[in-house]
Amino acid sequence: MVRYQVLSIWWPEGWEPSGPADVPNCAWETEFDRIEPPRLGKPLSRDEALALVRALNRQVIDHAADRWYVAAAIDEEPLPRQPGAILTDDRVERYRVHILIPQDASARGDCSHCPAHELDCATADRGSDLTLEVSFRTG
User: Residue ranges per domain, the chain?
Assistant: First the structure.
């Protein structure tokens, strides 16, 4: 099972979105801040998470901010802890996170002014959802 959620990332330096559904290529390299979904009385659906991201990012575009929002499907169960791993904080769990890439009207934005515009992250064509492992503080 997965839960759909909105996550915030920093606004990548030099990156310009072409629309509120854009997901920058460097999103998979970021540290995420956990953003709780609004209390709607039920979990968010995929479509609701994507709509919320579009609304939040429209506000960010209209009123300059340093955050950008992406929709994600987060596995309900944390990943197993590595045997022998040194635990520095037992309130941190690792989860598999799938960054949702909308198939309609979504782009990557413009990375041409980013200091890393010649790196693979700026030129890669990631046409489908991104999957990564992210640590979240649970307590």
Answer: 2-137
